[in-house]
Amino acid sequence: MDDERYTGIALRHAQSTLAEEVRQALTASKKRLPCKYFYDPEGNALFEQISELPEYYLTRTETAILKRDAASIIGHCPLDLALVELGSGSSTKIRYLIDSCLARQQELTYYAVDISPAGLENGTRQLLHDYPRLCVVGVAAEFEDGLGYLATDASSPRLVAFLGSTIGNFAEDEIAGFFTMLRRHLRPIDRLLLGVDLIKDPAVLEAAYDDAQGVTAQFNLNILVRLNRELSANFDPATFRHRAVWNHERSRIEMHLVSLRDQCVRIADLDLDVDLRQGETIHTENCHKYSRSGMEWLLTRHGFQVLGRFTDPQDQFCLFLTS
Question: Which end of the chain has a smaller Cβ tally under 10 Å, C or N?
Fold first, then answer.
């Protein structure tokens, strides 16, 4: 990006990481694919469409909370703040926090951490145009590597925003590792803002991940198109069906791709053949849902102090501000 207020940092080698993780995931006893690989340019565009769907309440509900409460959230943070967003995507919701920061300080640095270098530039270009007092550092990295880089780069107090209920993508054992990693990288002067989707009627949840227009189905199937393009695979998306189901015991929505017939898929770049039986699934995403008390217990257990809770009138979604 040709802008002196933008700095791009690349800490990950996308192609080698993709190949290694896909091999591991598709040779497991229960086949899966990491959900972070949904977000190629087409996946990003499809997710933007999903965010506008009537069934998908998450984005508009969290956005409404930020619009209403951003000033209060920033008011609970130290002065001369820097903003960090993990999984920045289109950098849309962060605008409310940027506005509140710039209302009380002369300039602001925003660190956008995402695995897609192209997505970082696209997501932040309009921000630089709209905010002359903003500097952006785009960090193409996994979350831990990005926070590790910031530990050496940013001296100002930081508000680390982890929005969109992305925390729900972590398995039960992974969330402990994630919170431990955050504790290692955050200082007492830093703050964490965590977006959490709350438990609700399973019919509402399933509709949010299996919309009537089929956009979420396209989004799920697009991961196969990406593997065809980037790893020379020969998946036929027409031979798979999107499925989203509520797992009550584990309090999560599960997304799968169901094989509609017996088939063998060749992934040439991995020299790998993947056999699938009719009805067998590739598990592509988990979206865990929490009660407010359950998430607060997890945060406290891992050493965080909850400073504020911000929710919507229907109690569908909650933003936790912690130190």
Answer: N
